[in-house]
């Protein structure tokens, strides 16, 4: 699986994974058949928006508005690339 090279891709969580709030962990987790990944707040904020309805550029704009920050595109692109490489996104 190759990572997106532009902000026009529409990332979505891989069909074998589930993203959910885990009360015991007090964190968002990514569940997969072999286990679980506990996500930090930034990773969860990105993955929660990877539902196939937004381009990567739209996702970045939404995050910047929601968190009142600018200039996060490089970090979001890096995380999404990592998530594609790990097989979390399709």
From TrEMBL:
Pfam families: PqqD. One of its GO terms (molecular function) is quinone binding. InterPro entries: PQQD (IPR008792), PqqD_bac (IPR022479), PqqD_sf (IPR041881). Pathway: Cofactor biosynthesis; pyrroloquinoline quinone biosynthesis. Keywords: PQQ biosynthesis. Transmembrane segments: none annotated. One of its GO terms (biological process) is pyrroloquinoline quinone biosynthetic process. The keyword Lyase does not apply. Monomer. Interacts with PqqE. This is Pyrroloquinoline quinone biosynthesis peptide chaperone PqqD. The lineage of its organism: Bacteria, Pseudomonadati, Pseudomonadota, Betaproteobacteria, Burkholderiales. The gene is pqqD.
